[in-house]
């Protein structure tokens, strides 16, 4: 694991990072419970286990920077600063949700935070992010655009075209591939033809790094290099993060494609929150972590209670925010 001495983050920033990761973890585990209890409609894809990637990637971004996400997008939203209460309202299809309760789990967006949206289309995010990067470059204000994509999405033609265009136009965009080992139930070793996604990305003409996605500091430092490069007008980069997901592809997935004791092993050995606390135990007191744990628990409980009591969208709003008329 990477040491604190190798990062420029202060202890306060590291605690903020832990708070974000813990918020994602508790949010997702509670969403799992509420979905199982029938309080959440549609499909749900949990981000549990991948928290260090979202937070490590977003810690050097601001509200003027853009991100795009995947169907597994709750963690990216929280890491980018989206309101947890608004997210829970959205996922439960209630008034006051970030998308008025009509987008649900796979389509959360928040333009005020630069969150361009989760996307249920595999490989749908890279072209959107490249478009946003063109805006960033045209405005000349050192904004950057970042795309989260999975190992499954790394094989899509939309992704290849977006990466090529980013290099050709020297755009300020970072492609983050979260390789959690499985595209739904197909292992990456079977579906991805190259030895790794990072080396394939280099063929497009951009620098690429491969890091341990369960090591927050490793992700953070790789991301800082890529973001600084983009802000300085040096073009796109790729970061591949080897990571694990603790749950199935979706809530209810029987996960028959996973090995015996695989889930128990990764939860024990590759928990990014537990590793974070262990690696920084000499710099941050355990009671500081425990105070954050308590605060986050209260936050999630309040968000769920508020969402359960909220009304659904009005019937009169059925056709609003569906079509845009350019007149």
Characterise this structure.
- The chain has 327 residues and is an alpha/beta fold.
- It has helices at 11-36, 51-58, 74-79, 84-91, 125-139, 157-168, 188-191, 197-202, 216-231, 262-269, 272-279, 286-309; strands at 66-68, 145-150, 173-179, 182-183, 186-187, 208-212, 237-242.
- The strands form 2 sheets. Strands 1-2-3-7-6 form a 5-stranded parallel beta sheet, with helices on both faces. It has a two-stranded antiparallel sheet with strand order 4-5.
- Helix 1 (11-36) crosses helix 2 (51-58) and helix 4 crosses helix 12.
- The mean pLDDT is 94.
Instruction: Give me the Rg, rounded.
Output: 19 Å
Query: Kindly, what is the distance between the CA atoms of the first and last residues, rounded to a whole number of angstroms?
Result: 56 Å
How many domain regions?
1
Strand content: 5-15%
Low-confidence stretches: none
* Overall helicity: 40-55%
Strand and helix order? HHEHHHEHEEEHHEHEHHH
Q: Strands across the major sheet, in which order?
A: 1-2-3-7-6
Shape: globular
| Average pLDDT rating | 94
Can you say what the CATH homologous superfamily is?
A: Thiamin diphosphate (ThDP)-binding fold, Pyr/PP domains
What name is given to the CATH topology?
Rossmann fold
- Find the count of extended strands (DSSP E, 2+ residues): 7
CATH C-level class is Alpha Beta
Number of helical elements: 12
CATH architecture: 3-Layer(aba) Sandwich
Which class of secondary structure composition applies to the elements? alpha/beta
Oligomer: single chain
List the helices and strands and how they pair.
Layout: H1 11-36, H2 51-58, E1 66-68, H3 74-79, H4 84-91, H5 125-139, E2 145-150, H6 157-168, E3 173-179, E4 182-183, E5 186-187, H7 188-191, H8 197-202, E6 208-212, H9 216-231, E7 237-242, H10 262-269, H11 272-279, H12 286-309
Parallel strand pairs: 1-2, 2-3, 3-7, 6-7
Antiparallel strand pairs: 4-5
Helix pairs in contact: 1-2, 1-12, 2-9, 4-12, 5-6
